[in-house]
């Protein structure tokens, strides 16, 4: 399934800055960062549930925001990009 996750973490404290870093690291382990606080995922249901539990265990629900958008169809059918596109198709062949 294709999922877009955005987050806004309150960074007014050291704990908030730590949460921000942790949320980004968790997301990097599952998907592709396409903007500062926006990640795209091509993920199965089990991995998504694991990701969601990790994120919910990291954020402070009284201070932070986490949004999950479930996207239908192929990436080309729901995303129109103008300018720099940081997306990397992790399901295709990667050349290093």
Derived structural class: alpha+beta
Q: Strand-and-helix sequence, N→C?
A: EHEEHEH
Mean pLDDT: 88
The CATH C-level class name? Alpha Beta
What fraction of the residues are assigned to beta strands by DSSP?
15-25%
Q: Over all CA atoms, what is the radius of gyration?
A: 14 Å
Largest sheet features: 4 strands, antiparallel
Instruction: Estimate percent helicity.
Output: 25-40%
Give structural notes.
- This protein has a four-stranded antiparallel beta sheet with strand order 2-3-1-4, covered by helices on one side.
- The chain has one domain (2-76): 2-Layer Sandwich (Alpha-Beta Plaits).
- It is an alpha+beta fold and 96 residues long.
- The chain has three helices and four strands, in the order E-H-E-E-H-E-H.
- It starts with a strand and ends in an 18-residue tail after the last helix.
Q: Layout of SSEs?
A:
Elements: E1 2-8, H1 14-28, E2 32-35, E3 38-42, H2 45-58, E4 65-71, H3 75-78
Antiparallel strand pairs: 1-3, 1-4, 2-3
Helix pairs in contact: 1-2
What is this structure, in a nutshell?
The chain has 96 residues and is an alpha+beta fold. It has helices spanning 14-28, 45-58, 75-78, and strands at 2-8, 32-35, 38-42, 65-71.
């Amino acid at each position: 399934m294709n999922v877009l996750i955005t987050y806004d973490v309150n960074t007014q404290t050291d704990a908030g800055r730590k949460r921000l870093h942790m949320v980004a690291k968790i997301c990097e382990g599952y998907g592709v960062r396409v903007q500062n606080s926006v990640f795209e995922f091509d993920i199965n249901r089990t991995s998504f549930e694991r990701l969601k539990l990790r994120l919910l265990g990291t954020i402070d629900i009284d201070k932070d925001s986490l949004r999950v958008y479930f996207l239908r169809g192929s990436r080309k059918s729901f995303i129109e990009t103008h300018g720099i596109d940081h997306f990397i198709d992790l399901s295709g062949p990667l050349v290093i």
